[in-house]
Design a protein that fits this description.
about 160 residues; alpha+beta; 6-stranded mixed sheet; 3-stranded antiparallel sheet; 11 strands; about 30% strand
Length: about 160
């Protein structure tokens, strides 16, 4: 997986298209934004960017299921044996138009997934072939996340 360091999040769409074009990639990807570092209640720090580089996902056994009624798969009521690192909450980006559309439910809409991101955030982009969509924003890996993680974007701090 390649890491691309942007000058600013406003460069995301242009650089995403350039990177995917160089790979001959199709018109849709799955993108997840994440915090580069997280801290637990007991002040233990996790380098999520290093986790993405080594595993393909920022999620690990300490991550939580969202289980938002009507929006996510309800793991508490309908367990499927998934662990937190087996899934991601993300967006499907339709790159057939400019700006890209976000397929997030009933109708694809144009909105910038980088809004409100800072130098403390990153975006990992996946090939859709290795993920199964189970709700509006929940995807389950069907293979090793490293096999479908294409690019991780950060901004220069």
């Amino acid at each position: 997986m390649k890491q691309v360091v942007l000058a600013d999040w406003s460069d995301f769409e242009r650089e995403l298209r350039a990177e995917l074009g160089a790979r001959g990639h199709g018109e849709s990807v799955i993108a997840r934004n994440f915090s580069l570092t997280t801290t637990t209640e007991d002040f233990a720090e996790t380098d999520r960017l290093a986790l993405v580089r080594s595993t393909g996902t920022d999620r690990d056994e300490t991550s939580h299921f969202w289980d938002v009624p009507g929006f996510d798969h309800d793991h508490a009521r309908h367990p499927q044996g998934k662990q937190p690192h087996d899934i991601v909450y993300a967006f499907t980006l339709d790159l057939s138009t400019t700006p890209y559309l976000v397929d997030h439910g009933a109708k694809a809409t144009a909105f910038d997934i980088t809004d409100n991101l800072t130098q403390y955030d990153g975006i990992v982009v996946y090939h859709p072939r290795g993920l199964s969509r189970v709700s509006e924003n929940e995807y389950w890996f069907t293979c090793n996340p490293l096999d479908v993680a294409l690019i991780v974007f950060t901004v220069d701090d």
